[in-house]
């Protein structure tokens, strides 16, 4: 019988504690490790392979591979060739000259674990001759280790003719020896694995070994692995320890871990760790509460800035076995341990979106103000956009949208703890090329400013065309409105902004919107209290004709705004409108102006609370925050549609303004946000018809700030 144990002991107390129970809980599934091997593609098929290693007690019940054509759905294929830790599968029915992304998965105790990283391959073109195959190795292993002998094994993958293998075997030597050459053991391989029994080894000696194949005169080798023979007279099946490790080290504690393998039939009566400060002579031992894997123990009371030696031990019958000694050093008092990150990956990459994955572990005492998320940016850009995730330890996943087609992105997982930021390794991915399919629930796919309609009983939509103004022989669109029956107020109003809409007609002929039910609108223009009527799309921006001006004077384009500090000369909103007037260009500026009704605190600490006021006989909500979203070309004179522009040719931004902002405030960088952030706040999708709109980022200097 083969038993695997993962020992984990967190040092919390200097006292020895032991718990015994006849009820042993089922061992939890331990996440296996995956090492994906480069695929070997043909025209309509590909051989994929992966090394999979599981150290837990729960066996792997299923292994498989999942693959997708760019932008398509993932297809799972159960692996039918899994031996000695190497999974191999031929994917069939593929398209020629096509790129595919793939990863490996394993199932343990009904729980599926996916490899953290994925790989890509491209099938060959019709008639293209595949390159000569090369062997790929699994991780070599040593078993049945005794004082003078050991069994070696290694799985391998070779898609060529087995007759091409001229020689196979293992090379080995004492790991600490000055000997440069390896002793070679030649064997006859089977179709996917190598195995050999070594004899006449030296007791208590570490040996380094590797597997090899000779094909067409070329020597191919696996990675090097080390095993240690037993003491002379030591019973076979004694536990074999890996070097113990420490994590989560703090000023007064640490988490210790040690993996060991036991092949004997005896019961493990006790397991734990011994530890001591470097200057001390005696070790203090702590017993784990149970021998069930994983073992845990908590202890604190260690000295800050102190080096500790430690080892793992197990007791089987009357025999006691210990690992090698390892060290860790506690942190300074008040210092937080650094978080640990796993590898990051990007999957489900399309022309405009991707799924980012990674893992994060933090065992420090700091619990307040921790932020964890993914940061990403397009190549050539300097500023990262971010997408936050939960701050607890574990696997992390974030869906990123609004990306540009055929663009390479770099990304990482980050954690901000105690005012200091930590980050994982960088990952990269490239979005697919091609046209992004038109979004659903958009009134007109050719209108760049339109958000996606959100369907619920509270929202009413109106799309107004200028009755007396045409462009290129077609009546020009004016404004589009989403209006709330509950709030008696616009949720957002969108429209193009261009000098062709500007003239001298500004009669402000207030009245109800004929498209939206009059029962949910104000009955007249009177606004009670300290408020006046704040236009979303301004009167000045639609002054070319009386017809277009009348439409922006509908009540559905107005919200209550403070008359003395906000919507007045020198008011915060008016000053923002003046700033935006400077962004008009020969190309069109596209805008969405919206209202937010929940409690809002801005970057200056100004807080606005929800309230209502009388507006034409109804109790209208007073917005707590107004936002303006802007999209245009960077040059301003390209004479191209923004829907035809690349990401690099466009700029967009959101300005947010608390309704509590005082008179005299001029727009600043602290008023700016990414459009994606407003999407997350409101639940709307903005600029949906512009696939390359850089909604995930903004550059203040593009907007003169």
Automatic annotation (TrEMBL):
Residues 476-693 form the ENPP1-3/EXOG-like endonuclease/phosphodiesterase domain. Residues 522-546 are annotated as: Disordered. The active site is at residue 535. PANTHER family: ENDONUCLEASE G, MITOCHONDRIAL (PTHR13966:SF5), ENDONUCLEASE RELATED (PTHR13966). Residues 133-222, 236-323, 337-424 form the Fibronectin type-III domain. This is Fibronectin type-III domain-containing protein. Keywords: Metal-binding, Signal. The keyword Lipid biosynthesis does not apply. It comes from Alistipes putredinis. Mg(2+) binds at residue 567.
